[in-house]
């Protein structure tokens, strides 16, 4: 699962095929949470567009606006909530890091994951549009897969990170399902790094640079009786 992520810099030049100069409203984000609006890249015709979508995909046929923040790669084709979006409405979700939690007894320790060179990347995403009761919601979900060797020590799922070449193919309208599914694999753990961070990230109201600073894990002390 992927429940929080970061996107702190859009860089310069082009932003995933969209001129960065056209995006003055994007600000650094250190704790992007479900239900918030997030930047995504879609392809319309031969042109890429930036859109701000709600994180938490609401299927167009749903009776109520209840969203899914993640979609499992293994069941994309067969699950009604995602199958049509997988075939027709794919997107890139820019990021430069994400959080996962390791369970330790009754508590959970958050870890921050990023590429070793700390460069931005793109999650594989899908989107849909829901309308009801006079409300219109365009929303997205991040696709997840099995973990690589680094993630496996912390969690049993990870978001799909697309290579530069796969980003191009993921957005193609004529891409075949078999070709698309080949992209939904774990990103190499050898190209990533992680470290523990403050539990402040648990609260979606926290959104500052200190969230991605490494913290020292507290060691549990055991006491014994001497006789």
Outline the fold blueprint.
Layout (H helix, E strand, L loop, with lengths): L3 E4 L6 E2 L2 E2 L9 E4 L4 E8 L2 E9 L14 E3 L10 H6 L1 E6 L1 E8 L2 E9 L5 E12 L2 E11 L12 E2 L1 E2 L1 H8 L5 H5 L10 E5 L31
Parallel strand pairs: 6-12, 7-12
Antiparallel strand pairs: 1-4, 1-9, 2-3, 5-6, 8-11, 9-10, 10-15, 11-12, 11-14, 12-13
Description:
This protein has helices at residues 83-88, 164-171, 177-181, and strands spanning 4-7, 14-15, 18-19, 29-32, 37-44, 47-55, 70-72, 90-95, 97-104, 107-115, 121-132, 135-145, 158-159, 161-162, 192-196. It is mainly beta. Helix content is 8%, strand content 38%. It has one domain (4-207): SOS response associated peptidase-like (hypothetical protein yedk fold), CATH 3.90.1680.10. The protein is built from 3 helices and 15 strands.
């Amino acid at each position: 699962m992927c429940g929080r992520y970061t996107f702190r810099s859009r860089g310069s030049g082009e932003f995933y095929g969209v001129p960065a100069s056209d995006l003055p409203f994007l600000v650094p984000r250190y704790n992007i949470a479900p239900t918030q609006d997030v930047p995504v890249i879609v392809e319309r015709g031969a042109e890429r567009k930036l859109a701000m979508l709600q994180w938490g995909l609401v299927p167009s046929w749903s009776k109520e606006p209840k969203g899914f923040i993640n979609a499992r790669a293994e069941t994309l084709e067969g699950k009604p909530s995602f199958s049509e979006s997988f075939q027709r409405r794919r997107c890139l979700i820019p990021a430069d890091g994400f959080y996962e939690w390791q369970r330790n007894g009754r508590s959970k320790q958050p870890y921050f994951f990023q590429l070793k060179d700390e460069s931005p990347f793109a999650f594989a995403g899908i989107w849909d549009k829901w309308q009801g009761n006079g409300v219109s919601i365009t929303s997205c979900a991040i696709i997840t897969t099995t973990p690589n060797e680094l993630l496996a020590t912390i969690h049993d799922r990870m978001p799909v990170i697309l290579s530069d070449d796969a980003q191009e193919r993921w957005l193609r309208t004529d891409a075949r399902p078999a070709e698309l599914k080949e992209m939904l694999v774990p990103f190499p753990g050898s190209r990533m790094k992680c470290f523990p961070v403050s539990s402040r990230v648990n609260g979606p109201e926290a959104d500052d640079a200190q969230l991605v600073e490494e913290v020292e894990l507290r060691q549990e002390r055991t006491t014994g009786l001497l006789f």
